[in-house]
Amino acid sequence: MSTTTPPRERPRRAAGRASTTTARTHAASGTSGASGAGGRTTGARHNQRWLAWIFLAPTILGMGLFTLVPIVASVVLAFFRWDIISAPTFVGFDNFSEVVQDPTVRVSFLNTIVFVVVAVALQLGLALALAVMVQEKMPAWLRVFFRSAFFFPLILSAASVSIFMRYLFNEQFGVVNWFLSLVGIPAVPWLTTPGGSAAVVILVYVWQNFGFSFLLFIGGLASIPVETYEAAAIDGATAAIDGATGWRKHLHVTLPLLSPTTLVASVMAIISALQVFDQPYVLTRGGPGDSTRTAVMVIFESAFQRLEFGQASAIGVLLTLIIMAITAAQFRLSKRFVFYQ
Amino acid sequence: MTGAIDGHLRDITRRTALGALGTGIIGATVASWPRLSGTDIPGRGDNSLSIAIMGTAADAAARQRAIDTFTRLHPEIRVKVQAIQAVDWKDFFTKILTMVAAGTPPDVVYVATEGAQLFAEKLAHPLDEYIRRDAADMREFFDDVHPSLVEAFMYKGSLYQLPMDWNAANMYYNTAAFAQAGLDRPADDWTHIDFRNSLAAMRKARTSDFTPYYWTNRLFGGVVPWLYANDTSFLKETRSAGGDWLWDGFYANDPSRSLRSGGYQWLEPNANDDRVFESFDYLRGLVKDGLGVRPEEGGGSSLVGLFASNRIGTTPAGGYWVQGLHEAGMGANDFDVQFFPRWKTQRHQFGTAGYAIMKTAKDKDAAWEWIKFSSSREAMALIFPSPITTPARRSMVNEQLYAGKGPAHWKVFYDTLDRFPTTGPIPAPPQQAAVETALMKNVSLAVSGDEQQLKQALASMQRDLELALRRQS
C-alpha cells in the first residue's frame, strides 16, 4: 500500500503552510496585528469569523434544538415515570431494571441484532456485487439507468412501500403467491408465520436500502486507479488475477482498495438497521408473536401506545449505547482491515 | 462566470445574492408564521369550541351542515371541527394525547369504546350533572337508544359520553357463494358447528382463489366475538357499582334494567380459562382445515374489495360495511348479514362512539350544548345520511337508510342489542393499548400451529396481560 499522506490531510497542511507564510510576511514588514495592513487583515479575519458563526448558527441551533436537547431530555426522562397527563415522578433506575427484565424488550433487542446481521450482510453484499457489475460491464448510459433505478426505492416512503408489500405478500390474494402457484408451489404464509414474516421484513428493508450502499460502492470503485490493476498485472500477478472468472482480481485488488468505502457503508448500514421501524411496523406490527418486533418498535409502543415515556426513554438510552459500542468497535477493527491508498 | 452568461447577471455580487436569499428566508418565515406558530390550528387563539374527530378533512366538511344548524341554534358558540387522520382508534388516541402534551388539547373528542375508559380515567369530564339538569330534554334520546350502548360509556358510576353510533360484530356472507354451495340463509340461532359446516360446503364448491372465512387480528371482529359467544373473554369481566341515577331515571321500565351497572371493569387476565382455549382451538381448526385464514394484524380496509369481488365467503363486521360494499359495486342482494353464530351463548361484541368533554375544555357548558345537539335526531340525520355506520338511535336504523343498498336483513344490526341484551362492549380497560398489543401479538401464533403452540401462546398472552394490567394501574 502507498505510504504517501492521505489526500484528506493535504488541505490542512496547505492551510497550515499558508498561515505560517502570512505570519512571516507580517513579521518581515514589521507591522503588528493591531495596525496598518496587518490591522486590516486581522479586522477582516475577525469579520470572517463572525460571518462563519452567522452561517453556522442555523445548523448549530438546529442541532442543539432538535438533536442535543431531545438526547438530554430523553436521558433525564429515563429516570422518571411519566404518562404525559400526570406530573413526572422520579424513579431512579427503576425504568432500566424493568425494561431489562421485560421479555418483550429482550426479544426485540435480539430480533434487532439478528436483523442487523442478516440485513446488513445482504445489503452490502448485493450492493457491492451490483456495483462491480454496473461499473465494469455496462455501457455508460445503462450505468446511469441502473444507478437511478437502484437508488429509486430509497426515496420512496418506507410506510407506502410496506403497505404495498403487504398486498404483494398476502397469503390468499398476493401476487407473490400467485406467481409461485404458476410453478406449482403452494401458498406461503409470508406474513403470518415467524419465519415468513421475518424474511419479508428483511427482504423489503434490503430492497429499499441497498441503493445507498450501491452508490457508495460505485463512488469507491471509481476512485480505484486503473494503474493499480495494471501494476498488479506487471508484477506478475496476471495469472492469479486474470483467472477464469476474474473474481480473484476483485479479491486481491478491489476489495482491499474498497475497504474505506466498505467501512463507511457498513457503519451507516448498521446504524440504520439498528433503528429499523417502518417496515416491520407496517408489514407485521411486530408479529406474529414478537417475531418481528424491533427495539425501536418497543420504544414507540412504550411511549405512544402505553404512555410509559420513562421506560421508552430507558430503552432508547440502551439502544443508543449499543449503537455507540458497535460503531466504536467497527472503527477499532477498521485499523486492522481498512487500507488507505 | 462564462462568456455565455448575461452581463446583468455578472453584476450580481455574492453579497447581493446572499442579501436576496436572506430577504427570501425572512419573507417566507413571515408568510408562514401562522403555520410555524400553530395559530392556524382550528380553535386555537380564539374561543371556538374545538372538536376533534377521527377522519379526514372531508369528514370534517361532512359535519359542516350539522355545525351550521348548531350555530343557528347557538349563535354565541363558535365551533371548529378538527379531523385527525389515524390508522385506528389507538393511533387516534395517541395523537390526542400528543396534543394534550403539547398544551393544545381539543375541548371535545369523539371517542370510541376502545378509549372510553382511558379518557374517563384521565382526560374526560363526567356528563352526570348536565344529564340531570337537562333530563327532560334527554329523555327522548335515551328512549331511542339501547341501554347497552349507554352502559359502555359508564365508568365507576358516572357517564362520560353519549353514544352516537355503534357497530356489532355480525356475520356478513356472500349470497352468491352461499348459493353456489347450496346453502340457504343461516338460521338466526345457527351455531358454531353450523357455521363450520357452511364453510366446509363453500370450500368444497370453490377449491381455489376463495376464502370461506376471512378475519383480521384485532380487538373488534377478531377472536373476541368467538370468546363472547362461548361465554368467556381474555379478560375477566366485572361490573362496578353505581349508575342507578341514570338507570332509574331513564331506563326504569326497560326489561334489561336489572342487568345494568356503574360500568364494566376488566381488572384481571383470563387467557388461561378453558373456554378461551376451546375458542382458540376452534379457530385453529378452521385455519388448519383451510376454512379460515391465518389472521394478519391490522385493519380490514382491503377486505371490502375482496368481499365485493366474491373471493370471500363470510367475515365478521358491523353496519359500517354497507356503504363500502355498495360503493365497491355490490348490489343489495349480493350480500346479507346474520347474527354471530351461537355457542354457549349468543352474546355479541360491539363498539360504540360518542363525544367526550375534556377536563381542560375552556367552556364545558358550550361543549355540553354541542353534545346535546349532536344527540338529537336532527343532527344525527345530518351526520349519518348513509349507512357508513349504525346510528345509536333505534328509530334511525330503518328501511330508508338501507334502501337500494341492502342488506335484505338490515334489521339484524339493531336486533343484535334488542334480542341479545347481554351483548357487551369491546374489552377496553384504561390500559387498552397495552392489552390490545398483548392480545394481538399472541393470536396469530395461537391459531397457526399445533396444540402445544396454542398452549404456549395462551400462556404468553396471560403473562403479557398481567404485565399490561399491572402497569399504569
Question: What does this protein look like?
Answer:
The complex is a heterodimer of chains A (341) and B (473). By secondary structure, chain A is an all-alpha fold. The longest helix of chain A is centred in the N-terminal third of the chain and has 42 residues, at 36-77. In chain A, strands 1-2 form a two-stranded antiparallel sheet. In chain A, α2 (36-77) crosses α14 (309-337), α4 (103-137) packs across α8 (194-222) and α8 (194-222) runs antiparallel to α11 (259-274). Chain A has helices at 10-29, 36-77, 94-101, 103-137, 140-155, 158-168, 175-182, 194-222, 226-241, 247-257, 259-274, 278-284, 295-305, 309-337, and strands at 80-81, 89-90. Residues 1-36 of chain A have low confidence and may be disordered. Helices cover 76% and strands 1% of the residues of chain A. The model of chain B has no long low-confidence stretch (mean pLDDT 92). The N and C termini of chain B lie far apart (71 Å). In chain B, α5 runs antiparallel to α19 (377-383), α15 crosses α22 (432-448) and α15 packs across α23. In chain B, the strands form four sheets. In chain B, strands 1, 2, 3, 4, 7, 14, 15 and 16 form an eight-stranded mixed sheet that branches. By secondary structure, chain B is an alpha/beta fold. Helix content of chain B is 46%, strand content 15%. Chain B has 23 helices and 16 strands. Chain B is globular. Chain B has helices spanning 7-11, 14-31, 33-36, 57-62, 64-73, 89-101, 113-122, 128-133, 135-144, 147-151, 175-180, 192-205, 224-229, 244-250, 274-288, 303-308, 321-327, 364-374, 377-383, 399-402, 411-419, 432-448, 451-470, and strands at 49-54, 79-84, 108-112, 124-125, 154-155, 158-159, 165-168, 170-174, 211-213, 235-239, 264-269, 312-317, 335-338, 349-358, 390-391, 424-425. The chains are: A mainly alpha (341), B alpha/beta (473).
